[in-house]
Every structure is written in C-alpha cells, then in structure tokens.
Design a protein that fits this description.
The complex is a heterodimer. By secondary structure, chain A is α+β, with helices and mostly antiparallel strands. Chain A is 31% helix and 22% strand. Chain A has 13 helices and 22 strands. Chain B has three domains: 6-118 and 249-321, FAD/NAD(P)-binding domain, CATH 3.50.50; 121-245, 3-Layer(bba) Sandwich (FAD/NAD(P)-binding domain); 327-408, no CATH class. The radius of gyration of chain B is 22 Å and the shape is globular. The chains are: A alpha+beta, B alpha/beta. The complex binds flavin-adenine dinucleotide (2 copies).
C-alpha cells in the first residue's frame, strides 16, 4: 500500500504539471498513468504552439489560463533550456468572408486582454511571408504566438515532480476507485494507492474517472487532428506560424515551423467514437495537402517526414471543465482540448488554488526546487554535435548516430538512464529526436535499436514488439 | 590535420572510386569522410553477389566489394575518416567536419559530394493508417539482419517489384520471415525475368500487380496491410507483422541543397555534366546522389570519371569550372536523364534514361528546337531500370541552340 496526500491520475502535460506543483508545495504525490511513459497520450501529438489565447472565449477559464500559462511556460522553458522560437503568427484571409472576420478577431483579442495584435494589408502580408500562395487579401499579426518543444515540457515537469518527491507509477491503469472518509483507494494491478485527495487529469479518460466518482458532468468526444510533418528543407519557406481565419463553416489548418526545424501542416478536426483511433486517413492527408498547397504552394513539393494524429478531449462544453468537489476531496480537470500544452502550468496553479481553498493540507514542507536542465533538442539551440566542449568532455557526444536529426550516440545513451529513462523506442524518439527524420531509420534504425537494447538491457525483439 | 586538396563526402562506391582516381593522379592529400562507423556505403549491408560487374569486371558480394574498394583506395594513398559528418560547405568552400574528435573546419581546393540515395519511407509515400512497429525500408532491413542480427517478424508484405524488392525478399528469408505478397502499382515486375520467376515459383511469393498498399493496421505492432487493386478498387486486408517499402529512391541531397546547388526536378539530384561538375565551381557530385537507384558499379564509374577530370584539372592549375554544356531534358514517357548537362563537342559516353511506362522496341530521338539530331534504337524499356543511350546522339547539337530534348518515337 502506497499512502499519499494526492493521487494524480494521468501523466500528460497537465497531470505532470499538477504533480510538480503539488510536490513542490510539500504534498506527497503519486502520479499514475496507464502508458509506459509520461506524455504518451494527447500530449505527444500536438502542434507545439505556445498560444496567447487571443481567440479564446473572453471571460472563460480557458482564456485566463492560456494567457497566464503562456507567461509561466515561457519562463519555465527558459530556465529548463527547452526550445522556444519567438516566431509570431500571421492569420491570413483568403476570401471576403475571412477578411470580414478579421476586425472581430482583433476585438476578441482585445477582450482577451491581448493588445499586440495588428491588422495587415495585402502588401504587408506578402512582405512578411513571400512564399505565400497567390490571393492573400490581408492578415492579422499576433506576434506572441510562438512555437515550443512539447515533448521536453512534459518530461521536464515529470522530472521535477519526481525530484521533489513524487512517485511516478507508469503502466498503471486506474480502473477501480473506492472513495470514503479515509480518502480514495485506487486498486491497481500491483498495489493499492491510498490518497487523501484525488486529481483527475486523465485526458481522454477523464469522464470515465469522473464516473467512478459518481459524476456525470461531461462526456469526452475524441476530436482527431491529423498532421503532416515536412522535411527541414521546407523550413526556409516561412517565418511565422500561418494560422487560418476561423469562420462559421470551417476551422482550417495551420502551417507552422517546429522547434525541430520542420514544418507542420494540420491539424484536421474529426469527431470520433474510438478513443484510441490515432490513425491517419487518405481523406485527411489529401485535405491537408489541398490546404497546404493554397497557403504555401512550395511546401507540398518537399518530402513528408512524418504523418501522425492526436486526439483532443473535446466535450459538450466549450470551456475547460475544472471542478472541485470539496466534500469528496476530488478535483476533475477535463476538456483541456486544444490549448493544454500552453495552459498546463496555469491549470496546475489553479488546481492548487482550489485544493488550498478547500482546506487541503500537505504532510511535508514546501520543497525548494528548480527546473531540470533538459537536453537541447531545438534547432535554435546548440546541440551536442555542435558543441566542442560537450564533445571534448565525452566523444560519444561527437559520434553521429541519427544523421537526419543530427543526434549523437551519447544522447541516445543518456535517454536510456535516469529517473525518467525511456521505456521504449517512442520514448527514445521524444527524448532525443533519433529516428524522427526524413529517412525514418533507413540509415540509423538498426544502430539505434541495438544501442537502446544494450543500454536498457532489454531484448530487441520486445523493443520492436516482434510477435513470438 | 593539414587541409586536404580534395574532400570527398561519402565512402560508398562513388566516393571511394573518385578518391582513388585522384590519388592515382597524384593529388594529395585526398580525404574521404563518412558518418558511418565503417567505410563502404550501402554495399556493406547487401549480402548477395553481383557487385563489381561494371567497374571491376568480376562479381563480388556487397561486403566483399566494399572491402575491396576501401583497401584499394587506402592502398593508393587515400585517407578515410569515419564517424564524421560533413555538416556544411560554406561559400568559400570551407567544410565543417563533426566527429568524436571534435569540430573541424577544413579548406579543400574542391569538394566532391557522394552522399548516396535512400528509399522513401512509408511516411513520404503518404501511406495512411496506424503507426505500428514492423515498418521497414530495404536498407534498414538489411542492416537490421546482416549488421545487427536483430529479429524481424514472421509474415511480410514487400512493397515494390524492382531489383531491390527481390533482394528484400531474400533478406527476409534469411531472417526466417515469409513474404506473403509483393505489391507493385505497375502492371508487371521490373526485375530480371529469372529473379521474378524464382521468387514467384521457387519461393511461392505472389506478386500483386496494379496494386498498392492503401493502409497499415496495428497498435504496437503491425497486424495487417490493406492492399488495393487499382483496376477494380477492391481492398483486401492481408495479415502481416512486417512491411518493407523498397525502391522509390530519393537522393540524400540535404548537403547538396544547402550548398545551393541547382537540383533537377526529375531526379531531385544535383544538375551535373559528365564529369560530375555542378552549378557551383569547385563542388562536384557523383553516384546515387545524382542518379538515385542505379547500381553500385554505375556509381563507381561516375566517381571514376569525376576523379579523373578533377585530378587533371587540379594538376593543371585548377580551373574549377561549373557544369558546362546544354541542358538535356526528356519528354514522357521518359522520366529522367543523367547527366542533364552535356557539351555536344565532348558528350558523355552514355546518357542514362529512365521511363515511367513499359514500352516495346522504340527509338530514342534527340531534338534541338525542331531539328532532329539523331536517333538510337532501344530494345524495350522498363520503369525503375535505366536505359543507356550513346552520348554521341548529341553530337550535332548547336552549342548555342539551347535545350536538347529526348523522346521516344
Ligand atoms: C492535434 C492537436 C494539436 C494541438 N495543438 C496544441 C498547441 O499547439 N498548443 C497547445 O497548447 N495545445 C495543443 N493541443 C492540446 C494539448 O495537446 C492538450 O490540451 C494537452 O496535451 C492535454 O494534456 P492532458 O494531460 O490533459 O491529456 P493527455 O496528454 O491525454 O494525458 C492524459 C493521460 O491520462 C492517462 N489516462 C487516461 N485514463 C487513465 C486511466 N484510467 N488510468 C491511468 N491513466 C489514464 C492517459 O494515458 C494519458 O497519458 C493540441 C492537441 C491536439 C490533439
Ligand atoms: C537495399 C539496397 C540494395 C542494393 N542492391 C544492389 C545490388 O544488388 N547491386 C548493385 O549494384 N547495387 C545495389 N544497390 C545500389 C548500390 O548500393 C548503390 O548504387 C551504391 O551504393 C551507390 O553508391 P554511392 O557511393 O553513390 O552511395 P552510398 O553507397 O549510399 O554511399 C554514400 C555514403 O555517404 C555517406 N554520407 C552521406 N552524407 C554524408 C555526410 N553529410 N557526411 C559524411 N558522410 C555522408 C553515407 O554514410 C554513405 O556511406 C542497392 C542499394 C540498396 C539501398
């Protein structure tokens, strides 16, 4: 039996942020996830945009938490060495309807407390982004929409939480919870966790955890977003995040640089039933290419490096669903749909505030803690293969392994060790970028698998799930 | 180290052969750099015979061929540095080398790019579906099985039906994996009849022509592959834990493009003339970087020609010119031509053509403007295989007359 002040169900970016915050405040925390790694759900499959919240619903919780989260995460990323590129965004209007929508968007930005947005005419739009397709009418510049490395964010929160004493229980599905005066008993496959307080940050599974506690406030509908990642040779085609103008009929897709030096095209928005269906589809891919060809015609001539899809936890409500049931000592954090990366630290702060207001007290004193130093994965950073001092300290950092992404052997080795060691090849990819490049393992696949098997002492067959 | 006279990027057949020619011509020092731990390029992991026929006039296994080229180059005075990536060649020709010894900038008189080609992976082919493990290219599969002895799976689908696809079937077999289907969008296989027959009848591997892989299924590990018949639209779900995407070559052209070289749309390789000269003086390109999907021997011969020209040029005081001559283009169903720049007064020994369709006996006709320059009879043409046409067909072209176009009559 593990006894803690708080159990956090779900180790996505939100759950990890909450666990980190509470552990630093002095709570003993158990952070649980059914997956073998943190951030293996929706948090691994987003577009990595650090939003300002300029287009959120004014007055909503989301509006407040995204705006606050932007600042908190910017500072955190700087301290942890997580890549952020201050690209800015440009909404481009391509027809009458979109052009007509821009002034209202500007007003909405104002109502959300965001004052730096500005309307641009066709000539200004073109001079900002010379590779745009023909027919761009006008635009709205949002200089504080930036891109961030999303994988390192979740990993940093989890690393800091563990450093502050949180227990991370992975590969641990929560399916049964017995709640009573003694707190919550989570009956897990290998053990029982007893927690005074329970935080539900289960993303796509949040309504199911809610139901275990007798709540039926919302239902999650997975909204799939398919994305195409283009070769780094496409990066020169744009400076800013190119956002679509949302209209009544269509949401549209964005074209965005990534901190890894690629260009993203997506996401689609499809409501599904199946909460595990992260497959891409012919229709989805074709639709994205059509949209991309209009926005940035030269983009679609470049090679596609990866195709993936993420599932947003949409609900029947428009706003985040963050609720406290003080009597039950339970906080539910649901419906963190399409801005949760940005808002994560603010959501955590909000949840901590709710718990404090409900009289929660923690068994330990506040811990002094600093963000961990994360591996520099961003193209704007100095990577080990570019760092003479690093190479001099250990030649493994100068030994190329994944050529497309310029990853050294030393980095892949490091990813296999420590409190947040990668449990599988996906984990290695998110910690190092290895095998994420244009060749998808043509050159390095066998080397990486052999090295990871060696370093982790695991069998290569199980790493690659070879059927017996 | 002191600056090399020539820096060769890539130690495959093209790079090693070029370097050796330079050394034989007396150029010193010649430095070959490769990012892999071992020299030799792709043949290192092609464990079957047939290498060396064109350049050495004998047949070796891939690894033996690679070893031979390495030994010969080193014996003739070439220096090879491994586990080292060339990340940049600046406007002044300064090249940045990154390896376990640190980061070094060298200033060679010329740089020869021989970075090879790779097969397009599943993502670049836009094959939709889940993202399970068990998805390979042939290059990855060969290293998996031959260099690292890693386990593969049980039942495989092979995508493609050109030479390399048949080589994938053999590698799978070696690893104990049964190939349950080969799938090609084209109406026929594109290899030698004997290979195709031996695979279909001897190994009982069915070939599905006019078909494509339309989707992958499986959480964690591949479970099934959707095979769509392009003629009927019917989709069949084939149980498989492994899929190998073969062929569909793309040059590994990042360095070439970052150097600002003009790239041909048809091949995505740098525009070159018969000597491997590119749009930038002092920068040459050879091998599968220029003609993706050709044999190792062809890459080696291209390296030899470039090495000879560069060796003579440097010895005579380095004129360092860019590719010279007329642009050469093709009309459908021809798909590409290498070299794509040719001097009618000094034409290449031969032009390598590729076609998009199967055709019977046809004539290749060269025209400049409306004027016919020459014609050459072909036996039959097969997509994904090259056709050689004597470069002399360009002889009558007017050096000031503009583009020469090759078409089928
Ligand atoms: C296509 C796409 C693009 C996006 N783009 C952006 C963007 O640019 N910027 C931005 O800020 N946001 C973006 N988002 C939104 C952002 O990714 C999400 O809001 C955020 O990841 C949600 O984090 P989470 O922790 O709530 O959920 P998740 O990451 O899904 O975490 C929930 C975790 O709970 C676990 N879990 C569920 N049920 C159980 C159970 N019963 N027992 C144990 N564990 C359980 C799951 O395994 C999962 O790991 C995007 C989302 C998508 C899909
Ligand atoms: C799976 C497969 C099977 C094949 N089977 C046959 C066959 O049976 N018979 C046959 O004749 N041909 C075969 N081929 C083709 C043959 O391998 C090629 O024609 C030949 O290898 C091309 O030689 P190359 O020197 O151009 O490039 P490669 O052999 O690809 O060598 C390129 C080298 O450049 C290095 N490099 C690239 N970029 C950099 C950089 N920036 N810095 C440092 N080093 C760099 C790479 O590491 C590599 O070693 C096969 C190819 C494949 C992929």
């Amino acid at each position: 039996m593990v006894e803690v002040d708080v159990a956090v169900v779900g180790a996505g970016v939100v759950g990890c942020a909450v666990a980190r915050h509470l552990a630093i405040d002095g709570a003993s925390v158990a952070l649980l996830d059914r997956a073998a790694d943190v951030g293996d759900g929706t948090s691994k499959a987003n577009t990595g945009v650090l939003h300002t919240g300029f287009d959120t619903e004014p007055g909503s919780l989301e509006s407040r938490l995204v705006a606050r989260g932007h600042g908190l995460l910017t500072d955190y990323a700087a301290a942890a060495g997580i890549a952020v590129e201050r690209t800015g965004a440009l909404l481009v209007a391509w027809d009458d309807e979109q052009e007509a929508a821009l002034p209202a968007l500007l007003a909405k930005a104002d109502a959300n407390g965001y004052a730096s947005a500005r309307l641009l005419d066709a000539a200004e739009v073109r001079s900002c982004e010379p590779h745009l397709g023909p027919g761009a009418r006008s635009g709205l510049s949002v200089p504080d929409e930036w891109v961030i490395d999303p994988w390192s964010v979740t990993l940093a929160f989890a690393t800091e939480a563990v450093g502050a004493g949180a227990r991370l229980l992975l590969a641990t599905p929560v399916e049964k919870i017995v709640s009573g005066d003694g707190g919550h008993e989570l009956e897990l496959p290998d053990c029982v966790v007893r927690a005074q307080w329970l935080v539900n940050a289960a993303g796509l599974g949040a309504d199911r955890i809610d139901a275990l506690l007798g709540h039926h406030d919302f239902t999650v509908t997975p909204r799939r977003g398919q994305l195409l990642v283009f070769d780094k040779l496409a990066r020169r085609l744009l400076c800013r995040i190119l956002l679509p103008v949302p209209t009544a009929r269509t949401k549209g897709v964005l074209v965005s640089p990534t901190t890894w030096g690629n260009v993203l095209l997506g996401p689609t928005a499809e409501d599904l039933e199946d909460r595990t269906d992260t497959a891409s589809t012919t229709g989805g891919i074709e639709g994205l290419l059509r949209a991309g060809r209009r926005v940035l015609p030269a983009l679609v001539d470049e090679e596609v490096t990866a195709v993936y899809a993420g599932l947003r936890s949409a609900t029947e409500h428009r706003d985040y669903q963050v609720r406290l049931d003080a009597g039950q000592r339970y906080v539910s954090v649901g419906g963190i749909r399409s801005t949760g990366l940005t808002s994560s630290l603010a959501v955590a702060e909000h949840v901590a505030g709710l718990l404090d207001g409900a009289g929660a007290g923690w068994s330990g004193p506040a811990v002094s803690s600093a963000p961990p130093v994360m591996p520099p994965l961003g193209e704007s950073q100095v990577r080990p293969l570019q760092d003479p001092d690093r190479i001099a300290s250990d030649p493994a950092y100068g030994t190329p392994l994944c050529h497309c992404e310029q990853v050294s052997r030393g980095e892949v080795r490091d990813a296999c060790h420590g409190a947040l060691a990668a449990a599988d090849l996906g984990g290695v990819r998110r910690r190092t970028r290895a095998m994420n490049g244009r060749c998808q393992g043509f050159y390095c696949g066998a080397e990486v698998v052999a090295l990871v098997a060696d370093e982790t002492g695991s069998d290569p067959g199980s790493l690659t799930r070879v059927p017996r | 180290m002191s600056d090399p006279a020539v820096l060769v990027v890539g130690s495959g057949p093209a790079g090693l052969t070029a370097a050796r020619e330079l050394a034989v011509a007396g150029v010193r020092p010649v430095l070959v750099v490769d990012r892999e731990v071992e020299a030799g390029g792709v043949p290192r992991h092609c464990d079957h015979t047939g290498f060396g026929l064109q350049d050495l006039r004998r047949s070796l296994s891939g690894p033996a061929y690679a070893r031979h080229l390495v030994r010969r180059a080193v014996g003739d005075g070439v220096a090879i540095r491994l586990s080292t990536t060339v990340t940049c060649v600046g406007d002044d020709g300064a090249a940045t080398l990154v390896g376990p010894g640190g980061i070094e900038v060298v200033h060679p008189r010329a740089v020869l790019l021989a970075t090879g080609a790779r097969e397009r992976p599943r993502s670049a082919r836009l094959v939709p579906g889940d993202r399970p493990a068990g998805v390979f290219t042939t290059g990855q599969l060969q290293q998996w099985v031959l260099l690292r002895q890693l386990p593969v799976g049980r039942r495989a689908v092979v995508v493609g039906a050109e030479h390399v696809a048949y080589s994938a079937v053999l590698t799978l077999r070696h690893a104990g994996v049964a190939t349950v289907a080969m799938v090609t969008e084209l109406p026929r296989h594109q290899t030698v009849g004997a290979f195709a027959l031996a695979t279909r009848v001897g190994l009982r591997v069915p070939l599905r022509t006019s078909s494509r892989v339309a989707g992958l299924h499986g959480h964690g590990r591949l479970e099934a592959v959707d095979v769509e018949d392009l003629l009927t639209g019917a989709v069949e779900r084939v149980a498989a834990d492994t899929v190998v995407f073969t062929g569909d070559w793309i040059p590994d052209h990042e360095l070439a493009r970052r150097c600002g070289l003009t790239v041909e749309r048809a091949t995505l390789g740098p525009r070159t003339d018969r000597w491997g000269r590119t749009s930038r003086p002092g920068l040459l390109a050879v091998g599968n970087l220029v003609h993706p999907g050709e044999t190792a021997g062809r890459a080696a011969l291209g390296g030899r020609d470039a090495g000879r020209w560069l060796g003579a040029d440097l010895s005579s005081g380095a004129t360092q010119v860019a590719a010279r001559g007329l642009p050469v283009t093709v009309a459908r169903p021809l798909a590409s031509v290498v070299p794509s720049v040719a001097d009618p007064g000094d034409p290449p020994r031969r032009l390598l053509l590729r076609t998009a369709e199967f055709t019977g006996r046809r004539l290749v006709v060269a025209r400049q403007g409306g004027r016919e320059l020459g014609r050459h009879g072909l036996r039959h043409s097969v997509p994904n295989r090259s056709l050689g046409v004597p470069g002399a067909i360009l002889r009558g072209a007017d050096p000031d007359g503009g583009t020469v176009e090759l078409s089928l009559a």
